[in-house]
Each structure stands twice: as C-alpha cells, then as structure tokens.
Design a protein that fits this description.
Distance between the termini: 33 Å
CATH superfamily: Allene oxide cyclase-like
Number of strands: 9
CATH class: Mainly Beta
Radius of gyration: 18 Å
Number of domains: 1
Strand order of the largest sheet: 1-3-4-5-6-7-8-9
Mean pLDDT: 89
CATH topology: AOC barrel-like
Helix content: 10-25%
C-alpha cells in the first residue's frame, strides 16, 4: 500500500510538470538593432560583457509591446568560439508600466555574434509578471528565424 502511494505521488508530480500552458502569446519582431555593448572585464570578448537592447514588437493578435533585454556573458569556451550568456528580458504591454512579463535564462552563443545564430532556438523561464500578468510562470521558446526576424512563444501557466 505504501508503495502504491509513493507511485501515485510520483506520477502526480511528473504529470503536473508536463501540464500544457494555460495561455500562449506569440511575439514577433524584425531583426534586432545593434546592441549597446559594455566591455567589462578583459578587453574584447570576456566574462562580464553586457549587451543591452530596447525595441518594439507585436503579438499574434496585433497588439504592440516594447521589449527590453540585458544579456551578460557568464562563461567562455574560447577555443570553440562559444559563450554562455544569461538573459533577463521584459515584455511590456500597453503603456509599458503596468502589464509586464519577465523572463530569464542561459543560452549558448557564438562569440562572433551578439544574438543567437539564425535558424536556432532556446528556452527561458517566465519568472513573473506585473499587472494582469502578476503571479504567472511558464516558459518562452525563442526562435531566430532564417530571415533574421524573431519569434518568442510565451507559454503562460
């Protein structure tokens, strides 16, 4: 009987982690403008370098929003030209001060590029929100499309 309870709890936890998102918002934007690049640490590509963006985007329903991104290099594999960068970003809806979704995560990048390679994707966590998005969680799948544009699918729970 005890084994059955353990199995039921394990299955419940596993099933909850696979739950489908309650809401999905697709955000798109054209190629990003050049980043503001802050060269901290050693001169050139190094741990601590920061890239900053601020640009407009739109949802699949046509709503306009603003996005702000801060990306910091946290690791290097110099001989392979690879960097690990932690990203913190905010999707600001309406006037930009009330309804926001905050994301964070780490991804692998080419040292030669400010952004993900075209035709690649990464996932990041939705860490919270404000206004109508207060208390949310979930994840974002970001895809850098072949034509240089971007698609961010926000899976909100």
């Amino acid at each position: 009987m005890r084994l059955l309870k353990i199995i039921l709890v394990a299955v419940s936890i596993f099933s909850a982690s696979l739950a489908i998102a309650d809401t999905k918002i697709i955000v798109t934007h054209p190629e990003v403008p050049p980043a503001t690049f802050l060269d901290f640490g050693k001169s050139g590509q190094s741990i601590g370098d920061v890239r900053i963006w601020h640009f407009d985007a739109k949802t699949d329903s046509g709503s306009k929003l603003t996005t702000d991104w801060i990306m910091t290099t946290t690791g290097l594999i110099s001989d392979k030209g690879i960097e690990y960068r932690i990203t913190s970003a905010v999707f600001s809806f309406d006037d930009g001060t009330k309804d926001q979704i905050v994301i964070q995560g780490v991804a692998k990048y080419s040292s030669a590029k400010a952004t993900l390679e075209e035709a690649t994707s990464t996932r990041r966590a939705i860490t919270g929100g404000t206004g109508k998005f207060a208390g949310i969680g979930g994840w974002v799948e970001t895809v850098h499309l072949v034509d240089g544009s971007w698609q961010h699918t926000l899976y909100i729970k």
